Amino acid sequence: MHTPQPRILFLDAYDSFSNNIVSLLADVLSAQVDILPIDAALPDLGHHQATSNGQEQLRCLVAHYDAVVCGPGPGSPTCDQDVGLMKHVWTLSEDHVLPVLGICLGFQSLVIHCGGVVRKLSTGLHGMIRDIDHVENQRPLAEGNIFAGVPKFKATLYHSLFADISSPEDGTSGAKGDWARSRWNRPAHLPDILPLAWVTEHRASGFDERILMGVKHARRPFWGLQYHPESICTESTGHQVIRNWFAEALRWNEERGRRRTTAEPDVSLKKLMCNLPKKSESLSRQFVPLASTESPSSLWEHSLGCKYYSRTLRLPNHVEVPDIVESLQAGRRDFIVLDSASAKTSRTGLDVKGRYSIIALDVDETLQLEYRTGSRRLTLRRGGERRDGHGKSDIDLEQVLHFDGEHTIWNILAAFWSKRQLPREDGNRDNNITHPFYGGFMGLTTYELGLEGIDVEPLNRRDGAHDRPDLSFAWVTRSAVMDHMEGTICLQTLSPDGPIVAGVWLDQTVEALTSSPVWADGLGADFSIRGGGQDQLLAAATAQLTPPLTPETTRSAQTTTYIQIPDADDYEDKVRECQEHIAAGDSYELCLTDQTLITRPRSHDDARLASASRHRHNSRQAQPGTWHSTQQKHVQQQQATTETSWSLYRALRARNPAPFGSYIRLGGATLVSSSPERFLEFSGATGLCSMRPMKGTVKKSSAVATLAQAEQILHVPKEEAENLMIVDLVRHDLHSVCGTGETAVRVPQLLKVEEYASVFQMISVVEGQLPLHASPSASGVGKEQQQHRVTGLDVLAATLPPGSMTGAPKKRSCELLQHIERGASSERSLYSGVVGYMDVRGNGDWSVTIRSLFRWDDEVVLAPSSTAAATAPAARGAGGEEESEHEHELHEVWHIGAGGAVTALSTPLGEREEMFTKLKGPLGVFEDQV
Q: Residue 559: what pLDDT?
């Protein structure tokens, strides 16, 4: 006789670990797990009169399940909004009750229902790993002891509130008399609570805090666990507790003759629920109605039917990424340069960080896509068109998208990509090309784009202060890829015009590059290479950078740079505010950030570029007296002109070489980055996705000069907890696309310390496996019969904003941070966003925008002129004589973001010092100009 698959309902309280629990349940119990949000508005199914609390609707729903799991989440079990439907599960009538397991918040909700109380711990235990002291074999499994037969094990805790079942006369022990014997007794005043597990926390003051970890309801089939069984650091021995619970649940159902309804839930109910993977269909499949009808714009047909062509050259040892850009892209307006500037210093066997650098060529002529979250408007623009509105096509998502499901920018991007994807067998087979980028999407996103994906409205966008894009992508058809391990450069093009036309462009580009002064200035080049060249590793690891090209100057003047750094005391106050929320249970970890503003006269070439900007220029009059506060630096520079953004990029890559550096001018933004953190990498061929969350930083110094010294400092509970929380969050994000099970998401590296130019960082690696599909054939490219498969773009959409920049749980943390990071620059913008690519074969690599500086063309301030500032720098605006118009000039505004993860173990001083440590690298490019 066929045994039906067990079915479990999981009540999701918007935790960033929920999918890990669902995956654990599905894997360990071989069960189907349906996910229902705690705030789901259950419909009146017509079977009973609807009630105000939704209990009748819930009764109809749970009849389809063997058991319910009430998951973890932020907030308090005493707050109805935080527990939602959970509280109704405990009060189901005797005729409709079913087995329930509460985890963390769900556990606390059960204890509250049984008459216990919840209090604050003296110090939160988020990310702490502790020995679970459980009842073991002192009670049999048949009596509801789900710990029976389970050896002692360690588990991860994520809570700052605890369930207190003590009576006033008991104090904090929870029971009178000898603790070793009495801890398993039911409290006299709470007869429904049967303790099953505890943790004893030894506090620095000498006080032992006894914390309840597991309970059983004495009369009903309800169990609860305070610890997190799904965490990567909870020992797998503890998974037997989950098996025991479900065995008891099924036994309880069997003994009482309870049979779940075998029919599928009502359609109106199914719409409220989801399973893992949550994206059972790809984004492009959801978008088929638009892709299969008349195009919304002629630009939508841009770059269809392209073939791949390339030439590979051996690089002279002295030629660097900036040299290639200057040789091939002089005079251009838009740039996308992904620069592995640390490649020469990090080539250590198999652990090569940032092996490739990618330069988009002729970006001015590409099709560019810009999306704005507030208006939900996508702008398509063909390169070379004027920026006054001519040649662009606006798409209002609300008007254009007509399909079931969420209407997002990602659906359009996926459909656009799917019509242009390149079969993996296409390309120059003779060249044996293996690099990751063949052409496709390149660009950047803001932090606020990620907020849209988790339904968090940016508070600072409500006043319509600007209309800057939150996503700027270019569809790159011409590019250069430098392989720093092989010492080669591949010039490549995606062309619909055939090999002759493509060959002409390749010949011209090879000639322009090899005839440039920088190419000939040093070792000779061998252009006969046809493939791997394993013996051609770069010989000069200490090769000097070529001096940058200097633009012509039209004026000579002193330039004045104003640097406004965060107020130290104010930042420490924000750390304390974060810790108050953590202590209240609202978050486990908050990634607090702040921004430094640098205003300076607009550089000669950047001013020229900005004058042609598509954006409106908003001038801000600087408020009198703001230039010389205690938190600002006033720097006068004796030089011919303000350093250009390209010079800043040159300086930053030399000062702080990083594996994921970048220089981007796109969508009215300029980004100069030396990011050390990979966000997401994925392979179109294998479906493997990899994320590298980075948490835990120590500055290099005479006291911390070696990796061993850094490991001693970083391998402590606070630093490891910061990283662990983000690892579990990233696992949750990946499960939403990759599905359930140990093979779907795994952690090959955990809490590893790595060395970078100026700091040591703790990183972990989390991998996910996308379902594999047959590769499209050449004849099927762009055709309707082509398979719609889940791709790395689905993963990117599901994982923003980066968890290492939010904290956990992600949604609640982002909501809190918007209020905490108050001030004139509270919008993070490009900082905390991502930069990268997704190529035509489905490969992608994205980095987190940190250790960076950025500016917008439309953000300028009216500041004292260089001449006026040099004459009387301290007196201007301090009262007295009014400044005249000729004593002011337009300044551009640069932003540098920095911050760190605040936990219960953080100190305000320590967090402030970490923020300034991270700020030092990018800020130095301005201070070095003095």
A: 61
